[in-house]
Amino acid sequence: MEYFFLLIIGFLAGTIGSLVGLGGGVIIVPALLFLSAAHMLPAISPQVAVGTSLVVIIFNGLSSTLTYMKHKMVDYKSGLFFFIGSGPGAMLGAWVNQHVHMHHFSLYFGLFLIAVSFLLMFQSRFSPRATRTFPVVRTYVTNEGEEVTYGYDPFIATLIAFVVGFVGGFFGIGGGSLMVPAMMLLFLFPPHVAVATSMFIVFLSSIVSSSTHVWMGNVAWTFAFALIPGVWVGAKCGAWLNRRLKGKTVVTLLRIVLILLGVRLIVQGLG
Length: 271
Hints:
By secondary structure, the protein is mainly alpha-helical.
């Protein structure tokens, strides 16, 4: 029965993660900790929850990236450049994660989820208000035929990517919850390109950060294999929905889920 729950959790994580570019770990990690605390799964440490989540997110990122590729929404050059910063950050975050106590982990993760929910509240305002000049300039033609110009400063982009990678490696979420808003707010990425490229970066960063956890033995492979099929299918559904649903509705639902999960973990951390 527990594996059926994991399959459903994987599907939801894959769908939501791919839909808004978060990666899916924001669902997987707290779900594993909750099921473990409720004795519905064998007891696992937060480090194992994170390591397992990162392994699963690899398949989430790959599945959604392959789907977004078909619609030419992934900016590979920018994604690879951002990965230069996020890769080392992911490794450092995975290492720091080893020194965090369970209660502290739950508290910090809960606060982080609530912070992300408020960040998403302003996501609709992350649109260009003035023309900016970037050292690196990119263009994208929308489905409506409109050509959008965006870009980034390599130094600033590397710093931001490092922070995003650290957060993803530490919390086991892939880091997309910070990368997507940063891309849209600071570098004027079109929303669809930001989400698709974020999932590409999440895929690469998760390989790096999960390898650290695998080396440390922080992966529950039985749980991972139960989650991966659901995540793979869910990621494709999320990418499909991304092109059809109104972003405002999706973000509102996601914010509600993040707040509920965040409060649950804060209570657990303070208990």
